[in-house]
Amino acid sequence: MKHRRVFAVELKRQIVEELLSGMSTPAQLIRRHEISSGLLYHWKEQYAKGRFNNEPTKEAALEDRVRQLEQLVGKLTLENEFLKKAVQRGLLTLPKKNDNSLLNTITSSKARKGGANS
């Protein structure tokens, strides 16, 4: 069974910078350092994100920001759908026009159904 090789961060950065500068082609780097093409492109992505003690590229920073905003939109969409269903089922009451709070208190199921304890 082969042992995994461990590459120093400096070597990874040097290889990727050589690729980005155009001094060597990907095929040349792959042969010279005996690495796979997938590993080379994985290192290139990591380099773009600033994982090799370098500044992240502007493109990677923007992609990261878009990813964060997409997660936030997803979370807010789920919350919005949940609140819409709660209002439809009568679990929440809509705020009055002069009420400053966003949501009124959740009504209990007994009070909503007109139970004997209300």
Brief write-up:
The protein has helices at residues 9-21, 26-33, 37-48, 58-88, 109-113. With 118 residues, the chain is mostly helical. It folds into two domains: 7-56; 73-118, no CATH class.
Task: Describe the model.
The longest helix is centred in the middle third of the chain and has 31 residues, at 58-88. The protein has helices at residues 9-21, 26-33, 37-48, 58-88, 109-113. It starts with 8 loop residues before the first helix and ends in a 5-residue tail after the last helix. It contains 5 helices and no strands. By secondary structure, the chain is mostly helical. Residues 105-111 have low confidence and may be disordered. The chain has 2 domains: 7-56; 73-118, no CATH class.
Which terms would index this structure?
2 domains; 118 residues; 5 helices; 58% helix
Number of helices: 5
The major beta sheet can be summarized as:
none
Strand content: under 5%
Order of helices and strands: HHHHH
**Number of domain modules:** 2
Uncertain regions spanning at least 5 consecutive residues: 105-111
Helix content: 55-70%
According to DSSP, the number of beta strands is 0
Distance between the termini: 73 Å
Helix/strand-derived category reads: mainly alpha
The coarse silhouette is elongated
Radius of gyration: 28 Å
What integer is the average pLDDT?
82
